[in-house]
Structure prediction request, 116 residues.
Amino acid sequence: MLTLVPDIRDIPPSRWDALSAQAGLYLSHRWLAAQQRDPTARVHYALVQDDGHLVAAAPLYVVDTEPNDLYRVHELLPGRGPARTLLAGARRGYVNAPCSTRASPLPDAARHSAGS
Prediction:
């Protein structure tokens, strides 16, 4: 089941960090909690649970104004003007990777949605 949570403090740190440990600091609960009040974006956290177990998670940012040149999609893609952008994953940091359990397969609904 996929759910969106507006505040990472509503997710127990131990559950989030069990998934993000492989990804490092920039996707840790503590880092994301410190970054979520950034006034240039709105964040929600996507959680995928299978049989009550958290199997995947990602921060999702809706960005209206990006102060970081490296994240300005309209400057990276030719012919695109400034626009609201959706970024998935760490927004402030140097490493970005999905947070998921390697041992747990995707739930049946997610596999079906993905077309596999």
